[in-house]
Amino acid sequence: MSGLTMIRARKRFAVKRPVGLCPRDGGKPARGLMIELSSEGCRVSKLGFRNFSEGEKVTLNMGQRPALTGFIRWAHDGIAGVRFERALHMGELLELVNCSRGEEEDARRYGT
Known about the structure:
By secondary structure, the protein is of the alpha+beta class.
């Protein structure tokens, strides 16, 4: 087998959720799409031309859900990695994964 194999510390989940990524220093916020989520952070795409800096403190707004705080781990080409200040508990993570995949809404629709 050729190529580089990456070993990740935390399981990552593919999601699709519109979010707002707001610098806590009062800088210009950006709209984006959360596309990957783990207990310790997430990846946000479609940030357009908004430049975030490594280490910049941010708030991740998700509409009706409580906002998450963290900092930028890396950013380039309209994509950013965010590390949360506080890791999500397993229940919080699974709930957020389910609602970010639309599974929570489907369960309500069918009464399950």
